[in-house]
Amino acid sequence: MKMNRLLTVVIACIIGLTSCSVTRNRAYAPSVTQLNLQMSDFEYLGETEISIEYRRYLGVFTRIDAVNGLPYDGQEINSVELNAGYLDGVIPFRFSGKLDRASVKLLEDFPDANYYVVVRQSRHTTRWFLGSDITVKAVVKAYKLK
Question: pLDDT value at position 7?
Answer without folding.
Answer: 82
